[in-house]
Amino acid sequence: MTSAKSTRNRGAAVTGLGVIAPNGVGTDAFWKATREGITFLDRISREGSEHFPVRIGGQVRGFDPGSMIEERFLVQTDRFTHFAMASADLALDDAKLPVDDMSPFAVGVVTAAGSGGGEFGQRELQQLYGKGPRYVGPYQSIAWFYAASTGQVSIRGGFKGPCGVVANDEAGGLDALAHARRSIRRGADAVVAGASEASLAPYSIVCMLGWDELSRARDAGRAYLPFTEDACGFAPGEGGAMLVVEEEGAARRRGVRIRGFIAGYGSTFTGPSRWERSREGLAQAIRVALEDAECAPEEIDVVFADALGVPEADRAEALAIADALGPHGTRVPVTAPKTGFGRAHCAAPTLDVAAALLSMEHRVVPPTPYVTDVCHDLDLVTRSSRPAEPRTALVLSRGLMGCNAALVLRGPEGDY
């Protein structure tokens, strides 16, 4: 039997990183735009979405799925799964994982998604109601389903290890990475993990219109301004990030570059849109994550904020950071790069994790685009990136249905 101590010693090292985002296809492009604070919010131009009250979002452009994914997979999958498969390929290439030499049962897959395959589903439903059931494609039954990405990534890669799908609102992106870490501790050699979303198709936007937290601003420069007096909600986005999470000992024996470690995780639930209560819930999630990581509050060098852009939620988050980190909470650099390219639901925190790992690697904290005048007691990094020596990062996420999650990341040189 594996002891609790030996299980805990199976560190979860991030050896691969793949990103498909509005501000860049591929890790290098994503990081360059994130570091420089280049903005990518614009009028949503997807056909059929022009007249909705939600006008501004972050769209992935310049991504050709046909150049990265085989036709037989393309025809049976939605755009959100295209993002997952492409970013998984990039992550596996980055990790140089020797999958041909590994048991297929040693490699798992776990993803999160909230919106599912809205574009694919809308097209097939239009066929159903416009022409009849004979015109509905056979893949409708699986392509719209939020589990499609885990299934297709595992089938395509031949991965038969522990696979899972997390359905936990926007915080699911962090939950998926925590699930991957748990699988490593339980014996898996590697897990491909992350989240992707493609929720800017007409059907998906209509499903979101009931959210009061969604920004209705018509000017990209005013659409997503968290922690300011002008905050009016968040701008939606799309894209995703996938990571290869590998058992630390195996990664070190391979001599592969380790981008960082998933060191601690915590989660709580405080109820839908109860933003005042989220203060207590988020603070508790942070405390649990710190304890799990055996990390003191003052060791946190940078916070990647949830940054919902709703005044009550922003206030609750700022107070939660101070509650959990003490006096250090008002001094630690805080950032929210997603204001420059949109909040991609479950994928938002995984993109934050990607940015946090790159921030520690390149020794700089990226800025929070568009935001200038902060009205909370936070050291929010604005206007331009800030040189720093971050070794430990805290990534926060909250879902509109009340989930709160916190993830502690250690840099490759950090003690784990």
Structure report:
It is a single chain. This protein is α/β, with parallel strands linked by helices and 416 residues long. It has two domains: 12-254, 3-Layer(aba) Sandwich (Peroxisomal Thiolase, Chain A, domain 1), CATH 3.40.47.10; 262-409, 3-Layer(aba) Sandwich (Peroxisomal Thiolase, Chain A, domain 1), CATH 3.40.47. Helices cover 34% and strands 19% of the residues. It is built from 13 helices and 16 strands. It has helices at residues 4-8, 27-36, 71-74, 79-95, 118-130, 140-143, 148-157, 172-185, 202-208, 248-254, 275-293, 311-325, 347-362, and strands spanning 12-21, 24-25, 42-43, 56-57, 107-112, 163-166, 190-197, 239-247, 260-269, 302-304, 333-335, 364-365, 379-380, 386-387, 392-398, 403-410. The strands form three sheets. Strands 1, 2, 5, 6, 7, 8, 9, 10, 11, 13, 15 and 16 form a twelve-stranded mixed beta sheet that branches. A two-stranded antiparallel ribbon has the order 3-4. A hairpin with a 4-residue loop joins strand 15 and strand 16 (403-410). Helix 11 (275-293) runs parallel beside helix 12. Mean pLDDT is 94; it is low at 1-6.
Task: Provide keyphrases for this structure.
34% helix, globular, twelve-stranded mixed β-sheet, Peroxisomal Thiolase, Chain A, domain 1, Beta-ketoacyl_synthase, disordered N terminus, 19% strand, 2 domains, two-stranded antiparallel sheet, alpha/beta, single chain, 416 residues
Whole-number mean pLDDT: 94
* Fraction of helical residues: 25-40%
The first-level CATH class name of the largest domain: Alpha Beta
What is the CATH architecture descriptor of the largest domain? 3-Layer(aba) Sandwich
Radius of gyration: 20 Å
Write out the CATH superfamily name of the largest domain.
Thiolase/Chalcone synthase
